[in-house]
Amino acid sequence: MSAPPRGLPFFVYGTLRPGEYNHDRFLRGRTAAEEPARLPGALLYDGPGYPYLVRGAGRVAGELVHAAPGEYDALVSVLDRLEHGYAREVFEVLRLRDGAAVRAWVYVATPAVRLGEPIAGGDWLSRRPPRAARLPDAPRTP
């Protein structure tokens, strides 16, 4: 059995996307670049507060996240802990800027975490209001 590939970017499709609540918590300072991408051959589902992905006849919108120099191992470690219950697999992801296929790590739901409905169009952000719109209003003073 060959060793798993090292240095691949990660394809993120939900709460780790820029502007979402786990992006700043887990990716800030660990990435060198993030770029829009699509993952063919997958379906996105709405889980309890987060999406999950499975292989299927669809496509999923997300971002390719490239580790900052010297941060790859830390990024793998934090994402593996965050994505417990998911399997990290290699997929061919399409960059939007040029359509190039790029090998990337993708977290795929195992049967234990599958609950929820399909997200039409495969884009987590399309079914949620922008982050700022989800924040509660500040208390008003009279």
TrEMBL record:
Pfam families: GGACT (PF06094). Residues 10-125 form the Gamma-glutamylcyclotransferase AIG2-like domain. InterPro entries: AIG2-like_dom, GGCT-like, GGCT-like_sf. This is Gamma-glutamylcyclotransferase family protein.
